[in-house]
Write a structure and sequence with these properties.
It contains 3 helices and 8 strands, in the order H-H-E-E-H-E-E-E-E-E-E. The chain is α+β, with helices and mostly antiparallel strands and 137 residues long. The chain has one domain.
Length: 137
């Protein structure tokens, strides 16, 4: 009996139980980062709402070279940003830098060469968090 349970758990692990696929991310409206950015218009909408002081939330899912997802959730409540990161699905990564609902005071845009870099700053734990790099418009 124990062998059967162990075998079942191994099979579930091997077929990717708990993996967040790119198809799922697309269906959920995530902003996807892998060799470029997909659904960046959703980020633009988030920026516009936050500039107007309106609540909104986004999920950015970045895929590693191996195809493992690292998920960043950002929620704006009209005053501050709550930032969470989850690298638990990255088989070669570390969850040491994961955050859960860290409060950040502002979202900055910096232009470097031909890119707009968006970063959460003035965060409770003292570290800024780069969210996204988009081509300068």
């Amino acid at each position: 009996m124990v062998r059967k349970i162990g075998l079942a758990l191994c099979i579930l692990f091997l077929v990717g139980c708990g993996k967040y696929t790119m198809e799922e991310a697309k269906e959920n409206g995530d902003i996807i980062v892998q060799k470029g950015v997909e659904n960046s218009d959703r980020f633009e909408s988030f920026l516009n709402k936050s500039k107007q002081g309106k609540s909104d939330q986004i999920r950015i899912t970045a895929y590693t070279t191996e195809g493992d997802p690292i998920v960043y959730d950002v929620e704006y409540d009209g005053k501050t940003y709550q930032y969470s990161s989850d690298a638990s699905r990255d088989q070669f990564g570390s969850t040491d830098d994961d955050r859960k609902n860290e409060v950040c005071q502002q979202l900055d845009k910096t232009i470097v060469k031909q890119e707009a870099i968006y970063t959460l700053s003035k965060c409770a734990e003292g570290t800024d968090h780069e969210l996204l790099r988009l081509p300068k418009q």
